């Protein structure tokens, strides 16, 4: 079956998942905003403009999905994103029902020189999927996932969440690399590279992309694959949303599950340095079927942090148990929850720990190795935080296990360059009271500053502060090639709310 036949076979299911019943369409029609006059807005470069009532009505009529304006009852809910620290007010929100709506939204933004934000799952820590005063192009209604088990491929809409992709694939005992929180948007994760539990075995999410449909800054819908628009295909695999708006993705799938060996081991924090140094050595030689992530949690008011190792082995159970027994023999854990589990259960196991609406901030960096000196710094910084006046903050240090198949791809073969990274280090804090934001952010920045010397670059999906020096480190040796792509496909930098590659034309 060729790609066009594959697309046709999935079109009906995609439309059904996008539009649902006639009742759903009627509800969408009822949510249309009433346009009573002109509307102030912000331009691409931060200036002020006014959108005429006639232009807005014409734009609304071009969309199958609703156009949400600030006086619409659905406006506040629609503009909200996962990170509760982000509180921005777009002038308009185009709830796109399909690729045609995306094309019309891009063309409207171009005609009026509007600032544009693109929302998939709305889960990015930076909150750049919503903007102040511009046009929010909301892809979240485009949620559908279809699987061809014979070809071992899946195709999804750009608003699809990771849990939906996993669920559809696991019906056939298949999976591709996705992240570790199921309510994350698949589009944003994939475009930035896509770390996950299967990356060491099957490569990044971006490495498993066979093709994408993409709307360029000029409003043209194109296909990018190994055979068509190869330069774009290179760029979307790690280059984020710099080159256009992807409306659908096609992935390779692999045999996984339905049961895997998974669970947490919890240790006394007084053992943290010894256990982490043992982990650092183990992680260098672990087989690709094994992923071991580190989680150090300091809950609000905690007297001592908690050290946890999260194991996921997708190969032979006996071999997995033999490997995990090495940790049990080195230091007996206080709690041992490792057992066979449903892969779908594993993929949603962290969801409750990252609820929407909490005020989140993070700092992160990639590491070539987890050096003993870095371990000492990490443990000491988290120890210092415990016992201080409680600012209502939950702080997590997460060390994600990379390597394996991620390193099989050369740094220049895709836009994602960090093929030598063995760990992704992240400090993530969340709190509810905005009065504590300043001191919580300061603590996190100060703590990360002691770890930064051990890092080798940035994973763009974790970047909050994306100034140009950081963006260059995120893309490393691929940056200049990305500038050339930007010059070709988005010379006016319309897609700028991301880890932005700035054009030079």
Please provide a written account of the structure.
The model is unreliable at 1-30 (pLDDT under 50). The longest helix is centred in the first third of the chain and has 17 residues, at 3-19. This protein has helices at residues 3-19, 22-30, 53-62, 75-79, 99-111, 162-170, 186-191, 199-202, 230-236, 272-285, 317-330, 343-347, 372-385, 437-449, 468-475, 479-489; strands at 39-42, 48-51, 67-68, 92-95, 116-119, 135-138, 145-148, 153-157, 174-175, 209-215, 221-225, 245-252, 254-255, 259-267, 290-298, 306-313, 335-336, 339-342, 359-367, 393-401, 423-431. The two termini are 42 Å apart. The strands form 5 sheets. Strands 14, 15, 16, 17, 18, 19, 20 and 21 form an 8-stranded antiparallel β-sheet that branches. It has 16 helices and 21 strands. With 505 residues, it is α+β, with helices and mostly antiparallel strands. The radius of gyration is 23 Å and the shape is globular. It folds into 3 domains: 31-138, Uridine Diphospho-n-acetylenolpyruvylglucosamine Reductase, domain 2 (2-Layer Sandwich); 145-255 and 475-489, Uridine Diphospho-n-acetylenolpyruvylglucosamine Reductase, domain 3 (2-Layer Sandwich), CATH 3.30.465; 259-469, 3-Layer(aba) Sandwich (Vanillyl-alcohol Oxidase, Chain A, domain 3), CATH 3.40.462. The protein is 31% helix and 23% strand.
């Amino acid at each position: 079956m060729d790609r066009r036949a594959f697309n046709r076979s999935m079109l009906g299911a995609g439309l059904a998942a996008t539009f649902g019943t006639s009742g759903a369409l009627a509800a969408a029609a009822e949510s249309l905003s009433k346009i009573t006059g002109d509307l102030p807005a912000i331009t691409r470069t931060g200036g002020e403009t006014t959108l005429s009532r006639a232009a807005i009505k014409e734009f609304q009529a071009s969309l199958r999905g609703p156009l949400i304006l600030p006086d619409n009852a659905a406006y506040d809910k629609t503009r909200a994103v996962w990170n509760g620290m982000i509180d921005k007010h777009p002038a308009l929100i185009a709830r796109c029902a399909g690729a045609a709506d995306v094309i019309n939204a891009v063309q409207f933004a171009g005609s009026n020189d509007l600032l544009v934000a693109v929302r998939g799952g709305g889960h990015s820590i930076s909150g750049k999927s919503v903007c102040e005063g511009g046009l929010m192009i909301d892809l979240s209604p485009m949620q559908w996932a279809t699987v061809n088990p014979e070809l071992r491929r899946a195709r999804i809409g750009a608003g699809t969440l990771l849990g939906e992709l996993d669920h559809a694939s696991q019906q056939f005992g298949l999976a591709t690399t996705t992240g570790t929180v199921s309510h994350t948007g698949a589009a944003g994760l994939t475009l930035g590279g896509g770390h996950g539990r299967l990356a060491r075995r099957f490569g990044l999410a971006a490495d498993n992309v066979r093709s994408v449909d993409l709307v360029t800054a000029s409003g043209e819908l194109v296909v990018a694959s190994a055979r068509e628009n190869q330069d774009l295909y290179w760029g979307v695999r790690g280059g984020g949303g710099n080159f256009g708006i992807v409306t659908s993705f096609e992935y390779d799938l692999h045999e996984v599950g339905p049961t895997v060996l998974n669970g947490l081991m919890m240790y006394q924090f007084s053992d943290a340095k010894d256990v982490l140094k043992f982990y650092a050595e183990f992680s260098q030689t672990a087989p690709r079927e094994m992923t071991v992530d580190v989680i150090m949690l300091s809950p609000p008011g905690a007297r001592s942090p908690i050290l946890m190792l999260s194991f996921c082995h997708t190969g032979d159970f006996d071999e997995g148990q033999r490997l995990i027994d090495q940790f049990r023999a080195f230091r007996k854990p206080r709690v041992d929850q490792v057992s066979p589990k449903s892969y779908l259960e594993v993929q949603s196991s962290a969801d409750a720990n990252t609820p929407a609406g909490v005020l989140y901030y993070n700092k992160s960096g990639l590491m070539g190795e987890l050096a003993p000196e870095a371990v000492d710094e990490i443990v000491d910084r988290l120890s210092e935080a415990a016992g201080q006046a409680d600012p209502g903050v939950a702080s997590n240090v997460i060390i994600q296990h990379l390597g394996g198949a991620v390193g099989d791809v050369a740094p220049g073969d895709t836009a994602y360059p960090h093929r030598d990274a063995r760990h992704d280090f992240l400090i993530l804090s969340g709190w509810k009271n905005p009065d504590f934001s300043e001191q919580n952010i300061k603590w996190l920045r100060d703590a990360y500053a002691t770890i930064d010397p051990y890092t080798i670059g940035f994973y763009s999906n974790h970047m909050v502060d994306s100034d140009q020096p950081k963006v260059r480190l995120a893309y490393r040796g691929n940056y200049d090639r990305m500038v050339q792509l930007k010059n070709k496909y988005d010379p006016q930098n319309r897609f700028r709310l991301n880890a932005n590659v700035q054009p030079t034309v």
